[in-house]
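asparaginase
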Amino acid sequence: MSKKILVLNTGGTIAMSVDDSEGVKPLDDQAVGKILPFLTRYADVTMKNVLHLPSPHMTPELMNFLRQQIEAELAHDSCDGVVITHGTDTLEETAYFLDLTLSHTVPIVVTGAMRSSNELGADGPVNLISSVRTAADPGSVDKGVLVVFNDEIHAACHVTKTHTSNVATFQSPQYGPIGTVSKKHVQYHHAPLVREHYSISHADANVPLIKAVAGMDPSWIRFLIEQPIDGLVVEAFGLGNLPPAIIPTLKQVLNKGIPIVLVSRCYNGQVQDVYDYEGGGRQLKEMGIVFSNGLNGQKARLKLIVALQQSRDAKTLQKWFDK
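Predicted structure tokens:
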């Protein structure tokens, strides 16, 4: 019996076309549907249009709306797997948000395209076919949310967009893909050992993300003290160090009871409390800043938005960000 796969369309380049001015625009809301006849050899596929947005328009609130749509579909046991088409700019964020907030073991696959539907060499059709095949494969069960692009399967917690235009843009620094899609098989060779789940009702926490640079002026972030923020994520240098000039401002943020999560602006490795100087990781850890275990800035922000619904306690948050 064919597996039942639900394809939820949210927009993005996979659903766009090039117009006469050579601009890529969301002109074709049937672009993804045109691929449907090619999918039936792999599964019993149903398509639904949930959103029709370029991915820069995506927000955590819309990610949560998408989660609710998936929960409602799975509550009726209406499908064996879900494929989500999405724009690539924020695809990794939506995939990771869903990975944190969906507790189901059925395969959830996110895909998209780097070339619009009427461009020569459009990658949307093959990515969608590979995603449906992945969602229908028994080996995809209980592996968390997956991102399928360019015949590779990536874990949502590790994958990131690495190139502005290359069809092989999605990579997982340090870890690599967890599987591949060939002409005849879906094959896995490893998977994340830890799966997290956080129950949420909303996703409206105000959590800014700032990036450290040499000679950073504290006035650039001092205004945050007076803002109604719920948390803060800082992309630090290297192993987890910051310019000493901004340390007093960060202390004021912490004194207001606002959690701060530290990540590295490097795309490999994780922050650690090693360096013992003003602004060094050891001082930051002693201040009560939460150190993240290898997440990039945009994902750490989403994890903090989700985690804040459970706790604002730094020790509890540190335990979760160690995972």
